Amino acid sequence: MLELEDIQHFLISRPPARAARYEFLAFRRPGAGREWLKGILDKVGTAKALASGNPGTRWVTIGFTWNGLRALGVNQATLATFPEEFRQGMAARAEILGTTGANHPENWVGGLASEELHAIAILFARDVAERERCRQEHREYLLQCDGVKVLSSLDMEAIPPYTYAHEHFGYRDRLSQPVIEGMGEEPTPGSGPAIKPGEFFLGYPDENGPPAGLPQPEVLARNGSYVAYLRIEEHVGAFRDFLRQQGDTPEQQEWVAAKLMGRWRSGAPLVLSPNHDDPELGGDMQRTNDFNFGKMDPYGYGCPLGAHIRRMNPRDTAANMQRRKMIRRGGTYGPPLPEDKPDDGIERGIAAFVGCASLVRQFEFAMNVWANDPNFHELGNERDPFVGTQYGSFDMTIPKRPIRKKIVGLPAFTTIRGGAYFFLPGIKALRYLSALS
Amino acid sequence: MATQASASAKETDWTKPAAMAIPKEGYFKLQNGRYGPVYPRSPACYGFTIIAKIKPGREEVIREYGKTIEKTIAGLPEALDVLKLHYLRWVMFDIGKDTYFMYQGIFDTDFDKYTEDAVSLFSKYGLNTVFENLEGFPEDWKTNAPAFVQFVREHQRPSFLEYGEYPYVSADEIKKALKLKAAFSSMLDLMQ
Fold it and tell me: Do B5 and A209 count as a contact with CB atoms less than 8 A apart?
């Protein structure tokens, strides 16, 4: 059973938040980080508290980069027990992740590629008013913490309509999340078995057996997780222009939009509803994941082989799937772009976290192979249309009878504007870190 | 990695046999994969050649294991499907008093990409029986993927030349072509 009182709530359950703020911090004086941590530790939300009857109105999560752990005073011997990819940090892994060209760390914003990025404070709030109150409170607290600097911050807000989660392109989001074994939740039909907790939280059995090779000492590792942060700008104007070029009628354009994703924008999966949208199906959690690819759609006539959902979750068409699952968190930033308006040049997108127990096996695999391997599923010259790095040189094949449709030179609909690897320690581990000398 | 693969996708003229001389490091330009340098796709596809010394007296155990694998594949032909293999060759040979094991694989995926899948398959089908008889193989390989990968990389001997009579063709493409041939034969039969 998971020690919910010792695990930060972040990856366990999603609070009813409509606004958020991420603050990226640098510790510029020895001891500064520890003093900051001591004062904020009691505000960090636990999974247990969130599950209680009164979940509160704001939820705080704290994570550290490897440089941040060093800045907190963690000694060399302990630092060396963390895995190689975490020690290097996301920016150094750009070639592996495929974040090249416009997505390269040298173009990142907010100081995220800097070695000075030490910590993130993630605030989820019930609404914008509560977020603003907390932002002010943290600002005042930081004034007392000499040597802690905010490198950058990002405000997040849900975009209308608020009746369902979606991103700026208009696709319904949060449709598939892994269920953690032992939490008393049943996976929805088609979602596969519940996943062992050690795939997300250090110190628990994973799909391979008992925990092994964890950072030391145990108090620091136990109940911790790694998260990969990505700030992904969505070029909404370019995306809409592209769709307009792909079809004369709104129906034809929607068809292409659905083929890129593997679901209609309502969330209805193409495997189950290949010819027309079905919003009711899209939002019905008992049905919206109840499909596979290998048996139900082997050639991709419904969901193309290179569609986003087929790459990011190949279901029965990839091996070892139980060891590739990740927990996604985050939301949208920037104002929505009205349907009838041209692109206004304002940055908008998704700022997301991917939680796992092994960045190299879970997150980096997904980016390296599923998102960016041009030869995934023998496609030859394609990448994920949304999270793959695109230059206008890759294609998108849409199987169709009698002859497939091939989109040559898919443009980039997104740009990765920043990213980082954080370790989210358990509560006892946060206390251990705050008490270092 | 990406540029390499997309470039090679465009040069897949299977009618034109091709040879590729490979530098000593095993790659032309250093490109990092998740576990280290990525080796290029050659006219003979991706592949590896792992050479390691056998622990003294274990030759028969390994030889015997060949039969086990034969039975496994006979009963479960799709067992190694995920590795996108063309061929595997297992060879033993002596140098002086020592016996060495050579494991050569030719496949369609960059090994770095599917390392964990390979480790999990090795475990599932007991291929560890062979590896555990090699000197220097990490005892904790099941829970220590990086140590396993390090062993493989340390014992990998890159080719200095590879040749393909039908270069860059994947096993899937070959199977598709044979299926098409069979389908055409059936069609012709039906038209008689």
Answer: no
